[in-house]
Design a protein that fits this description.
Bound molecules: adenosine-5'-triphosphate, magnesium ion
Largest sheet: 5 strands, parallel
Helix content: 40-55%
Number of helices: 15
Distance between the termini: 53 Å
Radius of gyration: 23 Å
Length: 366
């Protein structure tokens, strides 16, 4: 099995995206967060067979990994994009494990100078996997130094300073770079071009979410019936990390207030008390929707105005909140800003304004 060699504390465990997640994480203490990370890591699939869902991607990867192993060549560089918690870091672990090579883990913000990149690249062995999380946050200068490493497995550097500096090129072992990003749109075109393959991970379907909950329950020794697994799966925003987190919370309720076993009734009542609604929206999701529907009469409204109203970072809204609200069809993006849809108003139980708001009705779905 692949060993993890270099562990950057910024991305160890559940990943940096988890740390940035709003409402979900901001209300918990540091020790709860680290126990949450250990819990998520313990539940992480290790093989393609254990990895639930994302079938097209997994089939493609199976073929590429088998071909690389049979042909004795190094796997191409792959980029995975998608909202936090969908399994990008997990994929890096699975791929290195399936290849039978070492995984080296770092992140865009952690590689903050050229020496850091050099030290990462020089610890690689032939065929190893280097995983760079939040790759859209690499600085331009680091990116430029990464290009020859990705293309020709070369690293350029200077010895000495000033007029006597001497340009040198170091030959690196052939390796595979796996990049992960929550913001594909922020990646520069030259960096994107150097990946052999990019893939946008999708939110998981209900059947897959239910399987993930059942698998995690089995691993932690909790009894759960089909209804209980489905209820948690339905309310976890199509996101495995959230499913695992909710399972843990529901397990606590079942333990303290029931027999310890989870069924649909205990799952449903616990999730109501955790303020997770029947489609999986949490407090921040609903606050966002309420700002657009009520304060801005359904929009169009700019993301900056929504962020200011919620005292929340724009990036968090763009990376975490909006992708899911778009997915369930409660908001839409238009060139003039975000608008709430009829379904969004209905979900909040708020009447949609009779007339289109000022700014026009472009993109409005009701
Ligand atoms: N396909 C899957 N099947 C089963 N469990 C999964 C799957 N994908 C993710 N998980 C679970 O969800 C947790 C979160 O996944 P992971 O850390 O890989 O997400 P991520 O996409 O890297 O998120 P971030 O962008 O926040 O770094 C994992 O620890 C694992 O337990
Ligand atoms: Mg991650």
């Amino acid at each position: 099995m692949a060993r993890k060699k270099h562990i950057d504390p910024a991305v160890a465990g559940a990943g940096a995206g988890a740390a940035a997640a709003p409402a979900h994480d901001s209300e918990v203490s540091a020790s709860e967060r680290s126990s949450e990370r250990a819990w998520q890591a313990a539940l992480r699939p290790r093989t393609f067979d254990e990895y639930v869902g994302q079938r097209d991607l997994i089939e493609n990867l199976r073929v590429s990994v088998r071909a690389a192993k049979q042909g004795g060549w190094t796997l191409d560089h792959f980029l995975f994009a998608g909202p936090p918690g969908l399994g990008k870091t997990t994929l890096a672990h699975v791929i290195a494990n399936e290849l039978g090579v070492d995984l080296h883990v770092s992140s865009g913000p952690a590689i903050d100078h050229k020496g850091m990149l050099a030290s990462l690249l020089t610890t690689l062995n032939e065929g190893d996997v280097l995983f760079i999380d939040e790759i859209h946050r690499l600085s331009p200068i680091i990116e430029e130094n990464l290009y020859p490493a990705m293309e020709d497995f070369k690293f350029d550097f200077f010895i000495g300073d000033g007029p006597h500096a001497k340009a040198m090129t170091m030959q690196l072992p052939r390796f595979t770079l796996l990049g992960a990003t929550t913001r594909m749109g922020l990646l520069s075109a030259p960096l994107l071009d150097r990946f052999g393959f990019h893939w946008q991970l999708r939110y998981y379907e209900l059947a897959d979410m239910t399987s993930i909950v059942r698998r995690s329950a089995r691993l932690i020794g909790v009894t759960i019936d089909a209804g209980g697994a489905e209820e948690i799966g339905r309310r976890a925003r199509g996101t495995p990390r959230i499913a695992n987190r909710l399972l843990r919370r529901v397990r606590d309720f079942a333990e303290v207030e029931g027999t310890g076993a989870i069924d649909a009734a205990i799952a449903s009542s616990s999730l109501d008390r955790l303020a997770v609604d029947h489609v999986g929206l949490d407090a921040l999701d609903r606050a966002y929707l309420s700002v657009v529907c009520e304060r801005f009469d359904g929009g169009p409204v700019g993301i900056e105005a929504v962020a200011a109203s919620l005292s929340e970072e724009r990036g968090t809204l763009e990376e975490v909140v909006e992708p899911f609200l778009l997915q369930v069809g409660f908001i839409a993006r238009t060139p003039r800003g975000r608008v709430a849809t009829a379904a969004g108003f209905q979900h909040l139980g708020v009447a949609a304004p009779a007339k289109a708001p000022s700014g026009g009705s472009q993109g409005r779905l009701f």
